[in-house]
């Protein structure tokens, strides 16, 4: 659970940095085309430091399959939708919409793995998700910002991102069910899946060369994206994989849904959003739900 909440904090910081990237040419596909290869290099270096070798992945074909698909759905498609949501409703509400991800992953785990939640865990999840949903209902702080001008499209992208993350979490858990896999190795394979999918998307759209040319030209954006790589797909995804491996999937996914709560002060002081009383009370409720989860 500590890994889950640590990943949530790191993702909040990374989302803030992405929200500061205002250059219009740097779209969601360009961001992922830049972030994923750097993440893979950092993971290989980490593996070298920890094991003495750059590559030590020795897992079954089934685990490879689940993790690759998890990376495609959760890291390539999911993040493309999430970054698109940021463009239309901002990073705070974009992250808030990820509240649906735990419900999707927990539902899939219940349907296919028979992983039922205890009464206390269900209460903790419901309280946490209810608090986050309460925050979402305060849409005035978003619609007041003129640059966030398509609320409906932004919400749709955010929900699609939640589907991607929730499904990716479930597929990662399926991989762990096949045998002993380290969180680092699982993250490596997931990143490979996401990177291959991202490159295929860029090739089909004929944007491969253009995407890398854009990021090299946008110096400010590239510097910010390098920092987001460290906190997001590198440490954040690594810690989330550890959380999926070591705790109940519904609990881990709920803790990973906490970035919207951490984004409230960021939205107020960094993006100058008007934070209403619903957001404040929702924050208190969600933190209380997280506390219940820690006591299970």
Number of helices, where a helix is a run of at least 4 consecutive DSSP H or I residues: 13
- What form results from the Cα inertia axes? globular
Distance between the termini: 10 Å
Number of domains: 1
Give the helix/strand class. mainly alpha
Quaternary structure type: single chain
- Largest sheet data: none
C-alpha Rg, in Å? 18 Å
Strand content: under 5%
Helix content: over 70%
Order of helices and strands: HHHHHHHHHHHHH
Report mean pLDDT, rounded to a whole number: 81
Number of strands: 0
- Low-pLDDT windows of residues: none
How are the elements arranged and paired?
Blueprint: H1 2-19, H2 28-51, H3 61-96, H4 100-113, H5 119-136, H6 140-143, H7 151-176, H8 183-204, H9 208-217, H10 219-246, H11 249-255, H12 259-269, H13 277-294
Helix pairs in contact: 1-3, 1-10, 1-12, 2-3, 2-8, 2-9, 2-10, 3-7, 3-8, 3-12, 4-7, 4-11, 5-13, 8-10
Gist of the model:
The protein is mainly alpha-helical. Helix content is 80%, strand content 0%. The protein has one domain.
Q: What does it look like?
A:
This protein is an all-alpha fold and 296 residues long. The protein has helices spanning 2-19, 28-51, 61-96, 100-113, 119-136, 140-143, 151-176, 183-204, 208-217, 219-246, 249-255, 259-269, 277-294. It has one domain (2-294). The radius of gyration is 18 Å and the shape is globular. The longest helix is centred in the first third of the chain and has 36 residues, at 61-96. It is built from 13 helices and no strands.
């Amino acid at each position: 659970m500590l890994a889950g909440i640590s990943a949530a904090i790191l993702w909040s910081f990374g989302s803030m940095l992405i929200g500061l990237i205002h250059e219009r040419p740097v779209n969601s596909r360009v961001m992922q085309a830049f972030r994923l290869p750097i993440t893979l290099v950092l993971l290989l270096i980490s593996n070298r430091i920890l094991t003495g070798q750059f590559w030590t992945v020795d897992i079954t074909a089934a685990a490879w399959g689940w993790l690759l698909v998890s990376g495609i759905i959760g890291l390539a498609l999911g993040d493309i939708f999430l970054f698109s949501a940021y463009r239309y409703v901002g990073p705070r509400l974009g992250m808030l919409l990820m509240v649906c991800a735990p419900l999707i992953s927990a539902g899939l785990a219940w349907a296919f793995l028979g992983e039922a939640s205890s009464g206390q865990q269900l209460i903790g999840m419901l309280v946490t998700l209810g608090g986050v949903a309460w925050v979402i209902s305060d849409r005035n702080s978003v619609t007041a910002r003129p640059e966030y001008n398509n609320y409906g499209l932004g919400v749709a992208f955010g929900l699609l991102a939640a589907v991607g993350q929730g499904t990716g979490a479930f597929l990662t858990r399926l991989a762990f069910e096949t045998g002993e896999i380290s969180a680092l190795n699982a993250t490596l394979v997931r990143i490979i899946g996401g990177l291959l999918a991202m490159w295929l998307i860029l090739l089909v759209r004929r944007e491969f060369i253009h995407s890398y040319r854009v990021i090299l030209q946008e110096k400010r954006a590239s510097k910010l994206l390098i920092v987001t790589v460290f906190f997001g797909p590198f440490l954040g995804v690594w810690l989330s994989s550890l959380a999926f491996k070591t705790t109940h999937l519904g609990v881990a996914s709920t803790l990973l849904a906490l970035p919207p709560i951490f984004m409230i002060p960021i939205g107020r002081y960094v993006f100058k959003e008007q934070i209403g009383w619903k957001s404040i009370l929702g924050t208190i409720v969600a933190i209380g739900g997280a506390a219940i989860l820690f006591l299970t």
